[in-house]
Design a protein that fits this description.
Elements: H1 20-33, E1 41-45, H2 53-56, E2 60-63, H3 69-79, E3 84-90, H4 91-97, H5 99-108, E4 112-118, E5 121-122, E6 128-129, H6 153-159, E7 164-169, H7 173-185, E8 189-195, H8 207-213, E9 215-216, H9 228-237, E10 242-248, H10 254-257, H11 261-270, H12 273-283
Parallel strand pairs: 1-2, 1-3, 3-4, 4-8, 7-8, 9-10
Antiparallel strand pairs: 5-6, 7-10
Helix pairs in contact: 1-7, 4-5, 6-9
């Protein structure tokens, strides 16, 4: 049986204290805890500091282009139902250029897990305002303060039909590990948004800030994680500063609704469809 050590890949080069260390360790331990082996899992990552997680984890992996982790991950999930597919990226990667893919992945309910390391800033490019940066946030790209309202990923996920939504914090690795295990075992599209502080470029959204402001959903009276409207209400009341499993629903996955998809794709491949198409195009010039 695999252990946390079996999932460790290359030596990370993240800044000392980066929240991504906790995210990666929680994910790797969760995979081992639920009985996965490295060959049972594939991590599809985007561009940014967070994108290195596919290199730092020993499993199948694919480092994609900026904002394109979800299309690749969905294709992998549809092509091989026996491998646990995990897409991973940051707030700039997933909620900026990748936000269109995010919305459609949510509504499709493909059976996979999406982990977003949200540090409210572009870290890899040395500290610019990101889609989740608060209005008035000052960075190299907004020296007088951002005039834009931030993206609200939790609300976007809920109103577009997410079947599993959770939010963790890098400063609570045990709680994050439990969230990761639940997400990996969920049947459908699971989003785990993680507040993962950037200790180098973001001096506002720090570990101390989150420790002072985050509230766990377990502290709410009579909270029902299967009530979508209540989940939306609590997300708005706390301005998204809550942790735990926020919402979960049992609904048929995209794979269950398209049981013949892999077989159809393989059949087309066997027909050398690309050759057939090229032959048809060439006929137009004869």
């Amino acid at each position: 049986m695999a252990t946390l050590k079996d999932f460790k890949g290359d030596q990370p080069t993240w800044c000392p204290g980066c929240g991504h260390f906790s995210v990666m360790a929680s994910l790797q331990k969760a995979a081992a805890d639920i009985g996965l082996e490295p060959h049972d899992m594939a991590i599809i990552s985007g561009i940014g500091c967070s994108g290195k997680i596919s290199e730092y984890t020993r499993s199948y992996g694919f480092h994609t282009l900026h904002g394109r982790a979800l299309p690749i991950a969905q294709g992998a999930a549809l092509g091989n139902k026996d491998v646990k597919i995990i897409a991973a990226g940051g707030d700039g990667d997933g909620y900026g250029i990748g936000v269109g893919h995010f919305v459609h992945a949510v509504r499709r309910n493909v059976n996979m897990t999406y982990v977003v390391m949200d540090n409210n800033i572009y870290g890899l490019t040395k500290g610019q305002t990101s889609p989740t940066s608060a209005q008035g946030f000052k960075t190299k790209s907004s020296p007088k303060g951002s005039v834009e309202s931030p993206v609200h990923p939790l609300e976007i996920a809920l109103v577009n039909g997410i079947t599993f939504l959770a939010q963790g914090f890098s400063g609570d690795i045990k709680g994050l590990n439990e969230i990761m295990k639940a997400a990996l075992q969920h049947k459908g599209f699971a989003l785990v948004n993680v507040y993962s502080p950037c200790v180098t470029f973001n001096k506002v959204n720090t570990y101390d800030y989150y420790k002072e402001n985050l509230v766990d959903v377990s502290s709410f009276d009579n909270y029902d994680p299967t009530d979508r409207m209540q989940a939306i209400q609590k997300v708005r009341e706390t301005n998204g500063l809550l942790t735990g499993i926020i919402f979960k629903e049992d609904r048929p996955t995209f794979q269950e609704l398209t049981p013949d998809y892999p077989e159809i794709a393989i059949a087309k491949q066997d027909l050398n469809l690309d050759v057939v198409i090229l032959e048809e195009i060439e006929k137009q010039f004869q």
